[in-house]
Amino acid sequence: MLPLHRSRPGTRPEWTVQPSSRPRRQRKPSSSLTTYLWTAGAIFALVTYFLYRTLSNADVKEATVELEKLYSRPSPEYCLRKTPPLVCGHGGDSSDAPPNSARAFQTALQDNVPCMEVDVARTKDGRLVVLHARELAALTGTSGKQVSEYSWPELSQLRWGDSDEGVVPVKPLLQLLQPSLQTIILDVKPTLDDNMQPTDLPVMTSAVAALLREVPCPNCIVWGKFDELALALRQAVPGQSVGYVVMNETAEVRSAGWDVPLRSPEAQVTALHYAMASTQLLDLLHAAAKRVIVWTANAPHMVRLALDAGADGVVTSYPKMVQKALMQRRDACLRLYGHAPVG
User: Fold this and answer.
1) pTM for the predicted model, two decimal places
2) How do strand 168-169 and strand 128-130 relate by DSSP bridges?
3) CA distance to 87, 100, 130, 132, 318, per residue, from 296 (Å)
4) At what angle do helices 319-337 and 300-309 cross, to 10 degrees?
């Protein structure tokens, strides 16, 4: 029995428990309780494991089905085209490197990717750099910023993860890519205000035009979301191929008129968001003598949509996947229809 004592003399009796000097004997759970706990734990672990495997297998099965459709089920229209679409690496090859990094571009070059899209932004002190707002946020750890808020000395100090790689200037990259690629797409990224309107488009246009005069690039296409860019560049650099972006993802985009497919008559190329790709729309654009390059198709169903709609090119962060799809589709076309795109 545990001894009791009064807490304070002269007050109302309040009793507390004093610990005994004798060691306490631990009660062991009964063997039936132990068996129950082990059984319940084992059942829980098995259920969790099988749920995980079921969900994982469902994801794997869905991805496998989509890849099978991409590789083995080309549309008759795709198989009857004369040449396969152009494969463009979005910021290089992002399979194992951040987009717009030197390693991503080097990987794409080594894999003989024939086309690359390069995001072009301008620093506060006027340097053209290869950078998108997404990569800027990843590099700085701060979202909502634009490239024009940083100077080149500030950006040049940033590094991708633990590597020694930093932000790439546009000029040396263009000099590296231009002799090796069939096509280079310069996607111009001006500074935007809160209403998604450009604040420095004339300055950006002048800077890009000066770059193209310094590094002539007959295999370059320059495009952006604002039609004024295409018109101004055609005037500043006669003969330069230009394009405009078509997309309808948000209400803001639609209110800006970017969802209108036929506009910018001086542009030869339409950069079409993959979600809008359809045979009817591409037929309309082709009838207007527009070359259509679909962006950014990063999943098998997106690539299949672009290819079967009749895209002239596909921009993707994973160009090796699309290159493999073109090879597999060639064999499937020959087997199914006796004809396949050649080139």
Assistant:
1) 0.82
2) antiparallel
3) 11, 14, 17, 14, 10
4) 50
pLDDT at res. 9: 44
Give CA–CA dist 283/279, Å, rounded. Answer: 6
Q: Quote the CA–CA distance of 72 and 82 in Å, as a whole number.
A: 19
Q: Looking at residue 163, what is its pLDDT?
A: 87
Q: What is the pLDDT of residue 5?
A: 41
In angstroms, the CA 225 to CA 245 distance is: 5
Token pair in block for residue 219: 């295999």
Using a pLDDT cut of 90, give the percent of the chain over it: 74
Ramachandran sector of residue 146 (left: φ over 0; alpha: ψ -120 to 50; beta: rest): beta
Long-range contacts of 333-339 (CB under 8 A, 24+ apart): 333/74, 333/78, 333/79, 336/74, 336/79, 337/76, 337/79, 337/80, 339/79, 339/80
pLDDT tens for each residue of 234-276: 999 999 999 999 999 898 889 889 999 999 999 999 999 999 9
Which one, of 150, 97, 163, lies nearest residue 122 by Cα? 150
User: Where do the H-state alpha helices sit in the chain?
Assistant: 31-72, 76-80, 102-110, 133-140, 152-155, 170-177, 201-214, 227-236, 251-255, 279-287, 300-309, 319-337
Q: Three-class SS of residue 286?
A: helix
The single-letter DSSP state of residue 148 is G
Q: How far apart are the C-alpha atoms of 168 and 177, rounded to whole Å? A: 13
Q: Using a pLDDT cut of 70, give the percent of the chain over it.
A: 82
Locate tokens 């030869």: which residue? 268
Question: pLDDT tens digit string along 285-299?
Answer: 999 999 999 999 999
Check whether 29 has a pLDDT greater than 90. no
CA pair distance 32, 141, nearest whole angstrom: 55
